[in-house]
């Protein structure tokens, strides 16, 4: 099924909304404690508990409006539900903090497996957005594989050695900025390996 076009701002809002909502909720509740069913939960756990259904709802809306969601979005949603759910159920924030590590290990591992098989799985996901020659896809995939594995390692270092506040800022802004910066620095690949109209 081909993807239906929707307003780009609406699409961005649905994709980024839950992350922003989690950040705002955490800032408002980080110093509070909540008694629920005889158990005490801090603000981080409550913000996580709200983030999970919100992400499910916005992903479902995005699917309804566009008729399609990517495999990366599905994998992210599953890991959020599993690791976020474990954090809420066990009242242990460590599981949710490990979630970015698992996501980037999954993406990096999948791309790395494709490279070992002589294929670029990234091409299958993004070919319509960025038409490149095969050599370009392989080079970009190799770089992105290393990048994802580096982000996984960095997330582990941050959440294990820094405060929860630092990790929340890192997750909300640092990871997003890192991914944006990565693609912005790959301009030479897009320039050197772009498929021109006459090649098509």
Automatic annotation (TrEMBL):
Record's subcellular location: Cell inner membrane
Coiled-coil stretches noted in the UniProt entry, renumbered to this chain: none
Membrane protein topology class: Multi-pass membrane protein
Highest taxon above the source species: Bacteria
Keyword DNA damage attributed: no
Keywords, comma-separated and alphabetical: Cell inner membrane, Cell membrane, Membrane, Transmembrane, Transmembrane helix
Alphabetical list of InterPro entries matching this protein: YciB (IPR006008)
KW Cell membrane (keyword) present: yes
Transmembrane parts of this sequence: 12-29, 41-62, 74-90, 102-122, 143-161, 167-185
Any GO CC annotation of this UniProt entry: plasma membrane
Its job: Plays a role in cell envelope biogenesis, maintenance of cell envelope integrity and membrane homeostasis.
Family the entry assigns: Belongs to the YciB family.
Protein name: Inner membrane-spanning protein YciB
Gene: yciB
């Amino acid at each position: 099924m081909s993807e239906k076009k929707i307003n780009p701002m609406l699409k961005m809002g649905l994709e980024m909304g839950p992350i922003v909502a989690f950040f705002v909720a955490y800032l408002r509740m980080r110093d509070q404690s909540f008694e629920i069913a005889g158990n005490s939960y801090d603000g981080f756990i409550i913000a996580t508990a709200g983030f999970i259904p919100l992400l499910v709802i916005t992903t479902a809306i995005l699917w309804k409006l566009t008729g399609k969601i990517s495999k990366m979005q599905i994998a992210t949603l599953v890991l959020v539900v599993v690791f976020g759910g474990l954090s809420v159920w066990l009242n242990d924030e460590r599981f949710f903090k490990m979630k970015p590590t698992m996501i980037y290990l999954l993406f990096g591992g999948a791309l790395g497996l494709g490279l070992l098989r002589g294929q670029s799985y990234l091409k299958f996901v993004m070919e319509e957005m960025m038409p490149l020659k095969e050599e370009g896809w392989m080079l970009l995939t190799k770089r992105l594989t290393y990048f994802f594995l580096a982000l996984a390692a960095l997330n582990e270092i941050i959440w294990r050695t820094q405060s929860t506040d630092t990790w929340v800022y890192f997750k909300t802004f640092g990871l997003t900025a890192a991914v944006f910066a990565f693609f912005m620095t790959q301009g030479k690949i897009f320039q050197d390996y772009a498929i021109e109209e006459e090649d098509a």
